Amino acid sequence: MLKRILAAGVGVWVGAINVPASHAAESALDTVVDRGVLRCGVVLDSPPSGYRNARNEPDGFDVAYCRDMAQVMGVKADIIETPASNRIPALVAKRIDVLIASTTGTPQRGLTIAFSRPYMSYATIIISRRGSGISAFADLADKRLGGVAGTTNEALLKKEMAGSWKGKGATYTAYGGDNEAFLALEEGKVDAILQAVGVFKTLQDSGMFPDFVNAGSVPLNDLVSIGVRRDDVQFLNWVNQFIWSQNVSGRFAQLYRTYFGDGPLPDLSTNTVSP
Q: What pLDDT is attached to residue 219?
């Protein structure tokens, strides 16, 4: 069965993995090829990574990445809308085969699922309303803050609230998705949220939230990875090889400029990660 993957030109390392035959058949790699469909979990309320276009169809960088992966495997892509807070549970429960949803691979999350090498990197900024008086990360110490539950942005804010901001008055409200967080900020329920700079640019271009402003940078450069089930070594190695192929072929650059615009490509190495 793996010969069909190898023929696609990116599965060079798959056949070299020393996995007992009794476990090989359990890999999602074989399951997906046999089924003829790759089920990708994607967050669709976080443009330009994932969203619904004017025809109400899934679109965005992560959606295109999934479709590229399916094409290489010789199968159809099935985009499964997956809220940010349900990304890992959906993979564990086998409702999806792979998670392509701008997910940061942390040691804690690695106890539950396996993460690939980074396939994208996001610089993070503060989004607030015009006239809020917020212009730097330190200004958040006494503000009402919001974010999506279970994200690295949430973890950073909670860390600061328990550390250098402790006792200064900051509060935090968790939401189920980016749309809820955007609405909370628009309605004045929170003073600021953290978000990828590419998402903010998309919001600006859409004109949906004219009072939102970039209120400063955040000490977080988010390298995100593709997730597979924790014990699926074959699929993980294949995904890593696929990401490498996207990068060296120029396809990553093409997708980035399609969805994020011109400018320097993000650095996918750990050189950009703040300690």
A: 84
CATH topology assigned to domain 2-122+222-267: D-Maltodextrin-Binding Protein; domain 2 (3.40.190)
Nearest residue to 235 via CA among 24, 1, 71, 3: 24
User: Which of 198, 220, 218, 194 is closest to 273 using CA atoms?
Assistant: 220
pTM for the structure as a whole: 0.73
The beta strand positions in 70-211, using DSSP E, are 76-81, 98-104, 113-129, 144-148, 171-175, 192-196
pLDDT tens profile 94-136:
999 999 999 999 999 999 999 999 999 988 899 999 999 999 9
Please tell me the distance from the alpha carbon of residue 101 to that of residue 75, in angstroms, as a whole number: 20
Tokens of 96: 């999806």
Q: Where are the domains of the chain?
A: 2-122+222-267, 123-221
Cβ–Cβ < 8 Å for 260, 120: no
